[in-house]
Amino acid sequence: MSPAAKGPVVAVSGLDDVIAAETVLSHVDGAAGRLIVRGHDLEQLAGKRSFEAVLGLLWQGFVSESVDEADIRARLGQARVAAFAAAAPVMPAVDGLSAVEALRLMLSALPDAATVPAHHLAVAAVPVFAAAIARRHRGLAPVAPDAGRGQADDMLRMIRGVSAPDAHVRALETYLVTVADHGLNASTFAARVIGSTRAGLVSAVVGGLCALKGPLHGGAPGPVLDMLDAIGNPANIRPWLEQALAGGERLMGFGHRIYRVRDPRADVLKAVAGELGRGDNRIGFAEAVEAAALDILRERKAGRTLDTNVEFYTALVLEALELPRESFTNVFAAGRVAGWTAHVLEQEKSGRMIRPQSRYVGPMPDQRDAA
Ligand code: ACO
User: Fold this and answer.
1) Is 154 close to ligand 1, i.e. is its CB under 6 Å away?
2) What whole-number distance in Å separates Cα of residue 127 and Cα of residue 307?
3) Per-residue confidence at 73, pLDDT binned at 50, 70, 90?
């Protein structure tokens, strides 16, 4: 029976609980606080497998070439070189834009049909462009990719201009794997909708980034640090949080549409932030803010379970990696582009065009229009 033959479906605000796609890629169990990526718990992947290995896991069955870790690493290296060549003519146009607006512009300039396969080009282009933007905003020339390195290693090198210590590379690798895919989140859904029209993978990735940049989604980690800075000292934690909530603000890094318990990614990244340690008790202060925020949210939003989400400790990890705050969303995109590409490839292979309906609640034409 077609959906239409079943009769109208009730409009659901925010599409809560609506199943809009079937996927083999990842599962978010909001009640148990569990993230499964292609049959593996997140904890079995983060810190244990490389970004390239997880990309291979996600792409398996959707691409014609080998998904071996070494092959993907080599192909991504070549694709980063191609992306760097494509960046040069566009770079001057990013001046005056925020980092994420600049990334949006640069990704938009990529062709949908290029000599490099689009899934390689898209995944390689995000770190290359993000690094070039971060440097340009500091008045520095871009650093060319080193095709022989892994993606996390090369991304840090392209941002800093020098090789990063192993501990930093491991931390970024763990971060990229942790955020690589996460069910049908808003940006992945946006990418799948675009992919479902056969618009092309690069277009779908641009759409994914546009959804990611919002502060309710991937734009949150920069504001988490702004919040920690604004609170400033332990005595100010509770008054600051109380005042923010009284003013109708949302506390960045808390709450989630699916998780009713702690986001498992928060624990993975908290451990990474702890290992990186800035040496000034930043983590200790963040933990105190987290504990107070959870207390106050429990009191004020009694009907709703609000817990720590991935963005709270993302902010601490990316700060400890000395990445510029305004680049945080672009770094998130460098991980999530793995999931966007896999979902679009899955959608193109097995899905129909996504075209839901709206319920018209406006006025009907009057008799004069009909005459
Ligand atoms: N701080 C204060 N109140 C909150 C927060 C928060 N962080 N999150 C939700 N609420 C409140 C809402 O105001 C609402 O209260 P009300 O019923 O009195 O109006 C209630 O909790 C339910 O909110 P919803 O909007 O239904 O929750 P939803 O599931 O739509 O929101 C979201 C999820 C957008 C993540 C929300 O929790 C939020 O805005 N968090 C802050 C931003 C953030 O951290 N974003 C990153 C999310 S993780 C990611 O996307 C990668």
Assistant:
1) no
2) 30
3) very high
My answer on whether 161 and 268 are in the same domain is no
- Is 253 near ligand 1, meaning CB less than 6 Å away? yes
pLDDT of amino acid 304: 85
Rounded distance, CA 41 to CA 30, Å? 14
pTM check: above 0.70:
yes
Instruction: Name the burial class of residue 1, with classes exposed (0-12), middle (13-18) and buried (19+) by CB atoms within 10 angstroms of its CB.
Output: exposed
Q: Does 61 map to a domain?
A: yes
- Quickly state the pLDDT bin for 9 (edges 50, 70, 90): low
pLDDT digits (tens, 9 = 90+) for 191-233: 999 999 999 999 999 999 999 999 999 999 999 999 999 999 9
Q: How far apart are CA 318 and CA 176, in angstroms?
A: 11
311 flagged as catalytic: yes
Residue 348 known to be catalytic: no
Q: What is the dihedral of CA 337, 339, 345, 351, to 10 degrees?
A: -130
Catalytic one of 119, 182, 256, 343:
256
| Residue 183, ligand 1, Cβ within 6 A | no
What tokens were used for 174? 């763990």
Whether 112 is in a domain gets the answer yes
In terms of residue numbers, what domain contains 91?
A: 26-216+330-350
- Residue 60 and residue 185 share a domain: yes
267-272 average pLDDT score: 96
Same-domain pairing of 244 and 144 = no
pLDDT at 3: 45
Residue with tokens 């049908």: 184
Is 259's pLDDT higher than 60? yes
Assess contact for 167 and 320: CB atoms under 8 A.
no
Tokens 């506390």 appear where? 251
* Residue 182, ligand 1, Cβ within 6 A: no
Q: Domain check: are 289 and 238 in the same one?
A: yes
Task: Assess whether 157 and 300 both reside in one domain.
Answer: no
In-domain check, residue 355: no
Domains identified in the chain, total number: 2
Asked if the structure places residue 84 within a domain, the reply is yes
Q: Which residues of 197-223 are buried (b: 16+ CB within 10 A; e: fewer)?
A: eeebbbbbbbbbbbbbbeeebbbbbbb
